[in-house]
């Protein structure tokens, strides 16, 4: 899923006080100590940076200690890596073992799937499998799939045709190639996949990854094997995901799974099951480990992250009722008790003041003032909120069962902007939902103009079986009309995002360096607090944490970049 986004580029050839030769400065942060050195520059031009700088150092000075965190976390028991689950009666421990067979994993769909891939790999690695990034040398190919729109599933069917050829060409002298479908598509289509594509050996739904070693052992004996059971409590709390890229500066941390919202267009409640939250202690433990590994950013993940509710600790299960955003309602009975998102966000952000915290995807109904205040106050929580609107028409929103009107949504946007000055906003929109008129479409266009999002994800409606819309509404907007409306939304979105993001031009942004720019080997790329991509030259710069030493920025460094040019696409 690619966002419609803008890219900020460095302003070149600009004199900028003591940094005349460079208009970017490196803030290299150090894991061994918990503070950044102060700067000794006071020219007027430098004062602007000093603001950012002091802000950053004062946060570190007043931040919580490591002991503070430890007091709040209890560590879940993890199995030692050599320990294998008891085998079922028909398999020996030896048969369950991967015996160094090589697995190739391919991920489609959302960030949850990226995280699920890391979980699946963590489980297989413990079971004795090796990982390969070379399709040709794989003994097992696993596709982690998405069902959200018809197109996502079609991509997998096409990929299976290619893999079929690979499987049939496999030399008899080699171990037979096994192919597995994991995730949402396995859950949605179940045995239909096994019947339609005989070359698929295993199916594992989103709650069945612990069963992968057994499924693969069964498949090795020549049978097809499937586990698509959904769970009420599986959160993989004790599985530490193994990151795909060891040099990554940021990681996803799953905090809850499933969805109870039942928006009428959405397949997710059927593919990922009921909403359940991971215990706070295990989330904190994972974030702490990531911080110790030197990661500089975590994104808390879930289908409705801000509906988080950890009910695992009995003492917090009192009858505190839920505060919904003003003008919002939910499709389910109000839930009570448990540790809520504001508590989790507070605790996570205290672990490492140098670590940026993001979260996605939230639902607009769950933005009580505690959450907004925390985002405003806590410097390492990014001032960036994804606020999926889906439509600008109250009539369509009702048909979608979103639980809010256009007016309530707009009021929430104003409230968020008042509570968090400078916040970046992004959204999801669906064009051509059942019964959407030109007037409804115009309402969505006008919402884009009214809000001026910084980033967006726009889709044409795709009817999904099992959903409420499938059973009760008519998919009556012709495909060409859906596409025309989508194009119109994209055009308006770009115009408005360009206006919104122009505010960054001429400003200094604190950028977390990710690595080389994909488009140019001489540029680096990173992201600002609002999650916009920033491109700047890979050249020597002043290291202000190391008495002005001249260095090249590395992934994981913070760099101050003065923005010159904006391009949106
Ligand atoms: N058709 C088109 N877009 C959809 N989305 C969810 N279900 C559908 C569907 N059936 C979009 C929504 C959601 C995003 C993840 O995908 O905008 O927020
Ligand atoms: Fe696709 Fe939704 Fe499943 Fe993510 S949760 S993989 S977006 S269907």
UniProtKB/TrEMBL annotation:
<dbReference type="Pfam" id="PF00919">
    <property type="entry name" value="UPF0004"/>
</dbReference>
<dbReference type="InterPro" id="IPR058240">
    <property type="entry name" value="rSAM_sf"/>
</dbReference>
<keyword id="KW-0408">Iron</keyword>
<dbReference type="InterPro" id="IPR005839">
    <property type="entry name" value="Methylthiotransferase"/>
</dbReference>
<keyword id="KW-0949">S-adenosyl-L-methionine</keyword>
<dbReference type="GO" id="GO:0051539">
    <property type="term" value="F:4 iron, 4 sulfur cluster binding"/>
</dbReference>
<dbReference type="GO" id="GO:0005829">
    <property type="term" value="C:cytosol"/>
</dbReference>
<dbReference type="Pfam" id="PF01938">
    <property type="entry name" value="TRAM"/>
</dbReference>
<dbReference type="InterPro" id="IPR007197">
    <property type="entry name" value="rSAM"/>
</dbReference>
<keyword id="KW-0411">Iron-sulfur</keyword>
<dbReference type="InterPro" id="IPR020612">
    <property type="entry name" value="Methylthiotransferase_CS"/>
</dbReference>
<keyword id="KW-0479">Metal-binding</keyword>
<dbReference type="InterPro" id="IPR002792">
    <property type="entry name" value="TRAM_dom"/>
</dbReference>
<feature type="domain" description="Radical SAM core">
    <location>
        <begin position="245"/>
        <end position="499"/>
    </location>
</feature>
<protein>
    <recommendedName>
        <fullName>Mitochondrial tRNA methylthiotransferase CDK5RAP1</fullName>
        <ecNumber>2.8.4.3</ecNumber>
    </recommendedName>
</protein>
<dbReference type="InterPro" id="IPR006463">
    <property type="entry name" value="MiaB_methiolase"/>
</dbReference>
<dbReference type="GO" id="GO:0046872">
    <property type="term" value="F:metal ion binding"/>
</dbReference>
<dbReference type="Pfam" id="PF04055">
    <property type="entry name" value="Radical_SAM"/>
</dbReference>
<dbReference type="GO" id="GO:0051246">
    <property type="term" value="P:regulation of protein metabolic process"/>
</dbReference>
<dbReference type="InterPro" id="IPR038135">
    <property type="entry name" value="Methylthiotransferase_N_sf"/>
</dbReference>
<dbReference type="InterPro" id="IPR023404">
    <property type="entry name" value="rSAM_horseshoe"/>
</dbReference>
<dbReference type="GO" id="GO:0005739">
    <property type="term" value="C:mitochondrion"/>
</dbReference>
<dbReference type="InterPro" id="IPR006638">
    <property type="entry name" value="Elp3/MiaA/NifB-like_rSAM"/>
</dbReference>
<feature type="domain" description="MTTase N-terminal">
    <location>
        <begin position="101"/>
        <end position="221"/>
    </location>
</feature>
<dbReference type="GO" id="GO:0035597">
    <property type="term" value="F:tRNA-2-methylthio-N(6)-dimethylallyladenosine(37) synthase activity"/>
</dbReference>
<comment type="similarity">
    <text>Belongs to the methylthiotransferase family. MiaB subfamily.</text>
</comment>
<feature type="domain" description="TRAM">
    <location>
        <begin position="502"/>
        <end position="569"/>
    </location>
</feature>
<keyword id="KW-0004">4Fe-4S</keyword>
<dbReference type="InterPro" id="IPR013848">
    <property type="entry name" value="Methylthiotransferase_N"/>
</dbReference>
